[in-house]
Amino acid sequence: MRNFYPRAGIAWTAIVGLLWYGLWTVAAVATARVLSDPDNIALMNKALPGALQLMFLYWQVVPLLMAATGASLELRKLQAYPIPVSQLFAIEVMLRVTAGIEMLLVLIGIAAGVLLNPRLPHSGALAVVPYILFNLFLAVGVRDVVARILARKRIREAAFLLLVICAGLPQFLLTRGSSIDGRFRKLFTGDSWSGWPWTATANLVRGHDTLRAAALILAWTAAAAVFGRWQFRRTLSFDAQAAGAGSSRPGSRQGWVERFYRLPSVLIRDPLGALIEKEIRSLTRSPRFRLVFLMGFTFGLVVWLPMALGRSGATNSFLGTNYLTVVSVYSLLLLSEVCFWNSFGFDRSATQIYFLAPVPFSRVLIGKNLSAVFFILIEISVVTAVCALLRLPLNAQRLAEAYTVAGVVTIFLLSAGNLLSIHQARGVNPTASFRSSAAGRVQSMLFLIYPIAFLPAGLAYLARYAFDTQTAFFAVLAVDAVIGLIVYRIALESAVEAAERLKEKMVASLSLGDGPITG
Amino acid sequence: MPELSPAIEVQNLRKLYGSKAAVDGLTFSVPRRCFFGFLGPNGAGKTTTIKMLMGLAPPSSGAIQLLGLSMPEHALEIKRLIGLVPDESLLFDHLTGGEFVEFVGRIYGLERPVARERSAELLELFELAGDRKKLIAEYSKGMRKRVAMAAALIHRPQLFLMDEPFEGVDAVGARLMKDILLEQVRRGATIFLTSHVLEVVERLCDRVAIINEGRLVLEGSMAELRGASETLEDAFVRALGVERTAETLDWL
User: From the CA of B94, how many Å to the nearest CA of chain A?
Assistant: First the structure.
């Protein structure tokens, strides 16, 4: 993360990294302890292939779903230099570690457990090496294929939607009773086909059918290397600018699109109206924003809905009764990355216009916040519409709950976001679909911020539980909203004061370009 | 607003970055209706000075008055009266040229229909009408400069602050921009510009100031600076005292 407060930025990144990777280190140590116990061989036989498969999915699929694929080479800049392709490819393969450091830690835990277990061959620990290489090579290929697809503007969103549906299918099948459920579950157990890379690795670790397992995992690794290198070469000769040209041109602007853009300025006077209109125009044309917006409701629905419905479709659980609120708040949190935390990121050096124009900076921030609210309202409305289409039970109370809880959370997120947007401002490429930070770290930041932002709404749920009445719930939410508005006002004034003091550094930070490695 | 006050008056202006002074005790004045060239070698402090005039960088010490109003006390009033073309892009890539110019007009206080009409006329004037529906991200560097200048003109400012306005602009575009700027001066506006292209400054400017290492080394009318037979380039090199012949490297 690049910002103009290097110490604060490093401290924040270090705390988040320490917490997140500390958690995974604990998981790795726990894995090592379980696997080192000779009495756990039966458990290992049953669970190891499934665990390795989940690691594979975490490494390959989660970065794509979070649109955060870790550090990567900026090939456009490096191609001008006489660096052999093989060396660039080798660096890119190594950089894929940044997309799955968590899995690397767990695999080291597995290797340590095998070494400490007297009933397992010590050579089994080496099995994790080709499995890591297989995942690294495959991650290069998959990332490159998806990045090229997402660079083509006309098919970007459709391709992403397809990806989300494909990724959500396993969870849907696992949580809903279906005829193929049993067969699907077999994939995660020791009974799955022995030809899969995760099963072959598990067999190699356990010393079962060693020669065949070694041949299989080496063959998978070689295939992944060929695939990765092939895709890497195709990316080298890919012209992203040409692929994205033309479609971004609003030349065939229909009347209704223009009316949509102008909607806020019909209701709100200039300069606030002009600022909101500019924000809506810019954001809706930014590929990065569109992808995150799409992710907001699709990923929210795909993750939470199957869990809410459960295997029998019953809706009596907490998730079942509150699914609309849960999905709405989750969508809101995903959207916060492009709407709250770095409000000036997409504007980059153009941010200086807000300091040069005769507009109070508070208006600029309010304009950004109101545009964020505008998109959040659309996002939650889409979630509601999808739930209605799926014929899920909806009533006025559930709708009111979803919108008020999301509203209260939004006020607190906006307050924090305004301060962060000034103090942690950094330029973001609005045309790059993928974020260069690792998916895990993004999730960890969300999970750190989530409890703080959700605390006031959580108190409302506590009141409903304690008093067993909706009145208490909504009364606490109303108090939360009032407190939130006071917090928002204070945060806004503080952000304006900081912006005036730090504008020079802020503009400089937002104007910085990317280096040879983005991340 | 006092009518006879200079367009720009700078007194003992300093800007420190740590212990290094980017601008060190600068004092100069720009009369109204003047085309003023602000010159200096790379790293002399031109951009820092213009940023302080624009209100983007607060000075470490010294005083600035624009159009008779002091900065930063009257910042909002001053901003309404000036037009800006900074060195870094202030264009939003995902707006079209027309949308951007209209947006600037509206935040400078023009009514929407007026801003829209002027935006269309300005794009026509800057020969960008054919590309008005193109996103700025697709514009060339020269087109970006032209749209930035069109936006700077939309609210009819009295003073223009321009940092390298002709950088990256082709000969035809530069000629067009120069004509428009000269017309603005004839109309009564004042222009303060920095440029590396001395020929441009020589042709356009009435007065010139040269700075080096944050200090003013020469100021005067174009005639005073050039003398009888010198070009502005000769005067520039002499003022900086850096005349030297090109060296060669043995291995090159």
Answer: 5
